[in-house]
Structure formats: C-alpha cells, structure tokens
Amino acid sequence: MTRVLTIDGTDYDVDGWNAAGLSVDAFCAWDLDGDSWLEFHEIAAAPWATWQGRKSVEYRRDGVLRFKGVTTLAEPGETARHWGYRCQGLKLLMNEVTITAPDFSGQVTYNLPLTDEESTPTRRGLSVGDIIAAVLDMHAAQLAAIGISTDATTAAQLASLTVVPNGPVHVSGELAHEVESLLQRWAGNVRMAIPPTGEVRFVDAAGLGTTGGAAASHVLTYGVDEVHPPSIGRDWSACAPRVVAYGRGRIYPFNGRMALDPSELRPAWTSGQQADWSDVDFTAPGDATDYGVVTTTSGPTTITVQSDDPTRAWPVNFWPKRGGWVQLRKATGIGLEYQINVPVSACTALTAGGTSTLTLDLPLESSASDAWDTYQLVGRTGPLEDDGSGTSLSNVWRLFDVVTPGGLVEGHLALSSPIPIPFYGLNNASAVMIQTPAALLVKDGVTFPASFRVLPETGQILFDEPIVRAWSSADDLAIGGAAVSPPDDILFMVPYARGPLQVAHPPDVGGVPQYAGTSHTVGGMTKTLYVYIPDWRYEGNAPLIQQYVEMLHRTLCDVQVAATVIYEDVRDDLLDVGDGHELSFAAECGTTGLETLAIPVRSVVVRIPNEGRVTTEVRTTNRVEWRTDPGLYVHSMSRLGSGPSIGLPMDADFTISANGTYRLSDGSPLNFTVAAGEPAAPVADPLMQAAGFAQGGNDGMGGMQALDADWSAPGGNVSGKYAGPKKYKTARPYRTTKTPYRRSRKFSSTSEADKAAGRAKMRAEHQAESQARRDLGASRRDVEDVRREERQDVGEGYLE
Question: Which DSSP string corresponds to 34-48?
Fold first, then answer.
C-alpha cells in the first residue's frame, strides 16, 4: 500500500509519519449532498503552519487519485507544532465560477414564452438536462482551467433528465449552486458529483435509475464481512403516498349569441330602466361626484363638508360603498398643505342644504380647523339595483348576464386564455385567433366590433360604452328610451374554465384517489401533498407536469430510511461514485430481514488512524431533500469529519421484525391510528376547498401523536426537549476508538430519572475517553520528542 499526498506540487509519502511530519487522517471519496474533503495534519518544524493560504492538494492510494482540491483551513492542535488542515474538493472550485452569458451579462434565461421580446428559438422548450448541459458548455473553458470537464457519460446522464420547466428559468450567480438548484426544483432525486478525476456526474440519490444507469448493489454479510451492524432509523413525518399538482383553470372559449332562443346574453337592466335611460346617464352620472366647501376640519381623519348643490343628498355611508375618494384644497396652501387625495371610510347622511361628516381612511398632515377650503368627491357610478347607495342608469345598454344551461360558463369566467382561441364571425364566415374576450354587434347584416370587460364574480360582461351608440344619432341618444336603435344580435366570445389543471400520481381510478409507496403499504398513510404551480396555465403541458409529479412522488412515497455503516477496512468498490451504490444486509446464520433493503449510499468516508485499522464510513439514506443545505460550502470542523455529520432519527425507538411489522422499543406493535383526543378527520383547508379539491388525510400523523411525537435523537429537536449535539473543533491527531466520537445516543426510557442517569453515564464515559486520549498522547514518543525540542529552543533563545 502506497499513499502519496501532493501539496502545492510536492509529493509526500504518507504511509506513516515521514520526514515532513505529515499524516492523512481521513478523506471523503464522494458525497452526493456536499463536496469531497480531506483532512491531514503535521508536526511542523517551527511553531507555525507550513502551508498558509490556499494550496492545491492531491491524494493517491496505490497510484489511484482519490482526492483533488485545495486547502481551506489550518488549526493548531495539542502543541504549538501540531497543525490540522482541511481541504475541499472540486465542487468548491466549480462554485467559484460565476455564470456569465455570451453578452457578458450575469444572467441567462431559458424557456421564455414566444411572445417575450428576449425569447430565442435555441433557448425555448428545453428540458432540465438541456439547460444544465448548455450552462456547463457555456463555461467549459473556465471549468477546464480548474480540472473539471464533461464527457459522453455526462451527456447521457443529462439526456435522461427530460422534464421541461413550464416557466422561465433564470440562471445566475455561482455555477455549482445554480446547477444544484435546478436539480432540486425539477429533478429532486438527482445530485451532482465531481470525482477527483474531474468529470461531472449526475447520480440518482434515491437509487431509482432516473439518470439511466443502475446503482451498483452490495450485500454486506454479518459474520463474513467485517461490518458493524448498523442502527437503521426510519422517518415518515414528511412522506406522502399521493401527490397532486395543480395550476390555473383549464381555459376554453365560449362563443355565444344574444339572438338565440334561449338567449345566451341577456340584459341586466329592466324595461323601466331602459325607458328612462338617455346618453347623459353614461356621459355624466351625477351621483358619482360632488363639489363644495369644507366647513371645518375636526381632526386628522374627520372633516365636515357642504355641497355647492343645494338639492344634493346622500344616505349614510354612501361614498364608502361607491369607493369614494375626496380631494381637499387650500387656496393659500403651500407644498403638503396645498392639496391631498384620501379615500373615504365612512360618512354621515346629507340632506338638502345640510352638511355631512366624512371619516378619512388616511390621516391628514394638516388638520387645523381651517386647514382646507374646498373638496371634490369622486366615486363609482351606481348599480342598476339598489345596494344601499342608490341606483344609476349608467350600465343600461352596457351590462349583460351570460346565461348557459347549468351555469358552468358564467360561473367560471376567465379574463384571458393562455393560448390563442377562436372567435367566430357572423354565420361562421370568419374566425380569428385571440386570447382576450371579444364581441361583434350585428344590425341588418352589418357587424361592428365592441369591447367589454369580464366580471367573473357576477358572471357578467360590461361593455365599455352603450351598444346603441353604433346606430343611433346624437339627438336620439340625447332623447334616449325608445328613440335609440339597439343591435339585432351580439356575437361574443369569453374564456371560461372547465375545471382545474390538475394531475395526480398515482393516477386516480374512477375518481378514487390511489396511494403507493411504503408509507402507505407499511405505514398506512393516506396523505396527499398538493403542489401549486402558478405558471401552469396550458392543459397541453399536463404530460410534462405529470413527469414532475412522478418525480416528487418517488421522492416522498417511501418511509425514509437512514443508517451509518462502519466497515473495518477500505471498501475500494465504493470509492468511485459511478451510477450510485446500494447496500443490503444479510447474516451468515439466519436472516436479517434486510437482505433486499437496497438503501442508497450518499457518502463514503475513509478514516486512517495512526494506530489500529482503517475504517470505511458509509452514510446511507433514501431521503431526498427539496432544498440545499445552507452549509453546503461552509464546512465547520465537525462537518468535515471531526465529529458526526448526521443525526440518525428514531434509530433506537422502533425496529422491524422478521415479518416486516413495525415494533416499538418495548416490543409492542406500532399501529397508525388517530390519537386520543384528536379529530377523526383532518381539518379542511379552505383554500383547497375553494379550488375544488378534496383534501387528503394525514393518517400517519395519528401514529406520531400516539407516540408523543418525541422520537428524535438528542439534537434532532423535534419535540424541543433536548439540546442540540455539541460540535468539537479541537484537532484530534490520534484516535482511541474505531467509530466516530460523540455518536448520538438514544434514551431507552422516557422517565426523567432514567434520562438523568443516562446523561450522567454519558458524562462519565466522555471523561474516561478524554483521559484515555491524554494518556495515549503523553505516552507517544513523537510527542515527547517535540516537547523536548521545544524546551531546547526556549533554552537557546529561539522561543519565548
């Protein structure tokens, strides 16, 4: 076995302590949730670190490159000459490449809509794999300079990521971070890894074959392989055996006519209102405005007004119902005291010749009694039917009810369509493709275009001006009533929603929700996760959204399993990331129930003690998080191998028996039932009900409530009862055990007395362990030599 550590271009033989006083402590061959790393330490010739600042580092075992990166940290150890170093791998260097577009801007945007002026054909309709490949190719020169490249395998893996984001994708900032952000949003079970040889790889972290290649399977046999039996934790708190994605409505066009029998467009006014109407009701709706004087200002939000019209009157709260605003003016005012516009929140009734007190929704800066001279009130025109603020004829010949059998169209009107839809002309002689509502007025076979607004809340349309204006003279309009000429027919098109854009996985059968995954088959959960995609507007994108939902379901459907496996040797077959790895566990005698576990491997760490055997620490889990760990590139000492880097939730609270049944630590079966005092059904979400969705249950939460939801290891802090685990930053050049220090321990009992006894026992173990490290360090010859040299240096005057 030859081990060579190359620092800043110089090779050092580190099979044991060498002339440079170097020793490699541990290295991470690969980590799907972070970056590779390496730790080494030295006994320096002088009381300062030999390598200060960033230096290139490579590590080879038997001529095979196992790590490549740079130094990032140096910390003192037990004596003035002991120094520990931390190094990070190529992903750190890749993240220092800043995304730069061909036009030298800092952002590249893909999948812009066709109507966007910045949209280009080469950047439209791209899959996640296409986008990542384009970004990597765009920065190929910068990546090559730091030893990172792509090859045919990279291209094949990216080609398997076929999900096409249905909205614009903006890429900017740090290269590695942006690539991983894309993966986590649109391919949540895929991770990017960069081995020391530099080829970018994309691996299915959940072992589902998403990236094409199958994960390598390994079976570790107790009694044959030198492996410590792992404690396997299981967590179903975030599981969902059914996933539903929904977007906007399924928009379709409705082409209707007024002249049909029954009519599909009916006037919203009465015959009496039509007879009383004239064009002045539209051009000058008198009750929607008023002028006058401010008699007094009583405070920052209260004024008293008197109309210039001695006959003007209004009821209580007339102006708030009309959405009224008041403009106040002071003839001699300057700056802020000259004029102001504020909304009216309340008003008293006004009788002819009297005064009314207005309550303002915003305070006035100037509120002296004579602060304002005049006012003008402006509000909305009155409705056809009295709502307590009076009526108005302004909407006669303008406001129509859309009427269809069953009320589907008028009950689900939309303002526009995501794609062009047809509007048919008179006698279907023509058709135009448009995305907004449209109408044609018809009289004597002649058509005239008219515009209108859609009112989805009331199922009505409101034309921008009276429809009789097209064929009536000014004199007839002034007379109004029967003098005007209405059209014979109105052709109109309005978009409407036929239901929500929605896909589910597993697909419903006959309208009945279906569930899949071990969270359902083993845990009995019937929870549905609803995911809203606001950019999903077009039903034709349903197959793409279906792929997205399937990916989310694969991520969440199974009970999340986690374990850290310690193997007493170097597992060379796990040191290359490849297409991923999976572990199962068998026994030389009997069965384990884990022969087909196939739990995915997430990271591999090799620890090299000065004495004792080398161990391989394999972290496994099928958990796939949706978001990047914020500490991904900000490693503390403990994250880089000085202590445990992951807490294993629930690994001592329940087990799986040989027949696959969940059991608690006391041997009783774990049943998923609603806890005592809990509602038998989940509380309905009003937003989901309003959208027309039947909310899924969360039966698994019942089991969590029954167990007091207190399964986490000290530091998991699910219940908040336990403090987080300590992280140790003191350099540790020697090891006294073959497993990581400070492993999370479980309390086997929930009583406070037993917990206190357990904590006292752990403190005693820690003290004994610390004393053992001190005894071992004091007994080592090399430490004595160093201390002797330091005393000599002090005597000769080199050190003070």
Answer: S--EEEEEEE-SSSS
Q: What is the pLDDT of residue 490?
A: 96
Q: Encoding tokens for residue 658?
A: 């040989």
Classified as helix, coil or strand, 553 is helix
Cα–Cα distance measured from residue 475 to residue 579, given in angstroms and rounded to the nearest whole number: 83
Would you give the DSSP letter of residue 637? T
Q: pLDDT tens digit string along 553-594?
A: 887 888 888 899 999 999 999 999 988 999 999 998 888 888
- Number of Cβ within 10 Å of residue 722's Cβ equals 16
Other CB atoms within a 10 A radius of the CB of residue 629 amount to 11
Q: Give the whole-angstrom CA distance, residue 191 versus residue 202.
A: 6
CA distance 378 to 385: 20
Residues 30 and 179 in one domain: yes
174 in the same domain as 62: yes
Say if residue 389 is exposed, middle or buried (CB neighbours under 10 Å; 0-12, 13-18, 19+). buried
Dig out the tokens for 647 from the structure: 């807490």
| Bond from prior residue into 102 cis (ω within 30 degrees of 0) | no
The angle at the Cα of 221, spanning 220 to 225, to the nearest 5 degrees, equals: 80
| Assigned domain for 795 exists | yes
Place of tokens 């006669």: 396
Residues 6+ apart with CB under 8 A from 781: none
Neighbours of 403 (CB within 10 A): 16
Contact 82, 731 (CB under 8 A): yes
Q: Find out whether 322 and 377 touch, Cβ atoms under 8 Å.
A: no
Whole-angstrom distance, CA of residue 764 vs CA of residue 639 = 25
Q: Are residues 211 and 84 in the same domain?
A: yes
Between 254 and 187, the more confident residue is 254
Q: Establish if 314 belongs to a structural domain.
A: yes
To which H or E segment does residue 183 belong? helix 175-186
Phi, psi of 123 (to 5 degrees): -120, 20
pLDDT band at 210 (very low <50, low <70, confident <90, very high): low
Alpha helix positions (H), 20-138 = 90-95, 128-138
Per-residue pLDDT, 751: 57
Q: Cα–Cα distances in Å, from 722 out to 677, 705, 715, 731?
A: 26, 18, 6, 27
What does the chain come to in residues?
800
Structure tokens at 52: 């200060």
Asked whether residue 359 carries a pLDDT value surpassing 50, the answer given is: yes
Whether 145 and 291 map to the same domain: the answer is: no
Range of the domain at 14: 1-224+600-608+615-630
Given a contact cutoff of 8 angstroms between Cβ atoms, the answer to whether 249 and 499 are in contact is: yes
Write down which residue in 344, 363, 378 finishes a domain. Answer: 378
Domain total for the chain?
Answer: 3
Query: What's the DSSP call for residue 252?
Result: E
Beta-sheet pairing, 10-13 with 216-222:
unpaired
pLDDT: is 789 or 403 the higher one? 403
pLDDT of residue 19: 61
Answer whether residue 4 is part of any domain: yes
